[in-house]
Design goal:
380 residues, alpha+beta, 6-stranded mixed beta sheet, globular
Length: 380
């Protein structure tokens, strides 16, 4: 194994959730690895913040995600034990929507083949069990009891700390200016120096287009809102409240309980304006709140008070909203891990295993076509 002060084997650029997971996985495997980030993660300027993320196996998006999320949850538990910090809290998750809708039907198809427990609730049963929820006529809920919530900032901190402990080196607040392939090696120039490595992993999220403008990626502004939870009005302690995802005529929305802060997070999933990461409109306006207020009026009318907190974040999307975990064509030592498309956070340690296998040459491409760059005609 090369020592870092000689030359790293691998450079990971971008240390949000995907980059920090890859840095940790490579260091765990004994590689000399250097992590670079233009900022000091965790930070609120990209896509790996916001206090809470849902982790669920009821994956209506595609059943191929289910084994991956099962593996990710196993890895998160191991990371949590090793880091000796709380990263995951089981809350259960409700998938709410029309009985024949994309969400409920897809969640059922995802869970059933893996013998994962779930319970189907009609609108009346939902009201009895969760008095704060109102379901429109023809809607139902599917409860996944083993689902829960991850704490994103803590997850990034834990992965970076464990990566350091395993020998990784970090260079924070150090922006990459340019990179160049030298055949079997890469030269990466930053504001402070130049680094050479055999393998380069790009995990730069919304900044990926600056590195590889030919990739079919688009950035989308999203706004998260937090509301105070008054148990006297809501008839349920926040510790007993599940996370939820709802399919409505106006799109998808999600809610996440945050008992430690006494707040309930609500946001829209997709439907935001196009944006650029360095010019993101971070001021939250009344028009951002309007679709959230309409959702709450219909589904959670007791939570209609003004939000206590609001914050913008960025989705980086592919056209089909699946990920890219692949090497660049004809450059097997350049690995791309990007485009979480608003639902990738939970998978990070499992995605990192795949990325490390690609970097080590154990696999020649992603194990699933779902994550292959070649699925986009003409890309790269």
């Amino acid at each position: 194994m090369n020592r870092l002060d000689d030359r790293p084997e691998c450079i990971v650029v971008g240390l949000g959730i995907m980059g920090s997971a890859c840095l940790h996985e490579l260091a765990k495997r004994g590689h000399a690895v250097l992590g670079l980030d233009q900022l000091s993660p965790p930070h609120p300027l990209g896509s790996s913040h916001g206090h809470s993320r849902i982790i669920r196996a009821s994956y209506f998006e595609h059943p191929s995600y289910v084994p991956l999320v099962i593996r990710a949850l196993e890895l998160w538990r191991g990371i949590e034990l090793e880091a000796q910090t709380s990263l995951f809290r089981r809350t259960g998750c409700l998938s709410i929507g029309p009985e024949d809708g994309l969400l409920c039907m897809g969640a059922r198809r995802a869970l059933a083949p893996h013998s994962l427990p779930f319970e189907e609730l009609d609108a009346e049963k939902v009201l009895i069990r969760y008095p704060f929820l109102r379901l429109p006529q023809g809607h139902q809920a599917l409860l996944e009891p083993l689902a829960g919530v991850l704490h994103p900032e803590r997850c990034v901190q834990a992965l970076l700390a464990l990566a350091r402990r395993k020998g990784a080196s970090l260079r924070l607040n150090e922006r990459v200016l340019r990179w160049k392939s030298l055949g079997r090696h890469f030269k990466v120039a930053t504001e402070r120096g130049t680094y050479l490595a055999e393998r380069l992993l790009l995990c730069v999220g919304p900044w990926m287009k600056k590195f590889l403008p030919e990739l079919p990626l688009a950035c989308e502004r999203q706004v998260m809102f937090w509301f105070e939870w008054d148990a006297s009005r809501m008839e349920r302690a926040l510790e007993q409240v599940p996370a939820l995802i709802a399919e409505t005529n106006e799109g998808f929305f999600y809610g996440i309980p945050e008992p430690e802060r006494g707040l309930y997070k609500v946001a829209r999933h997709h439907g935001g304006a196009s944006c650029e990461p360095d010019r993101l409109e971070r001021e939250v306006k009344e028009e951002d709140l309007r679709p959230i207020a309409q959702f709450l009026d219909r589904y959670m009318p007791a939570l209609r008070a003004r939000p206590k907190e609001a914050r913008a974040c960025i989705y980086t999307n592919t056209p089909d909203q699946h990920f890219i975990v692949d090497h660049l064509p004809r450059q097997e030592n350049l690995i791309i891990i990007s485009a979480c498309s608003g639902h990738g956070f939970k998978f990070a340690p499992a995605i990192a295993e795949e990325a490390a296998d690609l970097a080590e040459g154990k696999i020649k491409g992603p194990r699933q076509q779902l994550f292959s760059l070649s699925r986009f005609a003409g890309a790269a």
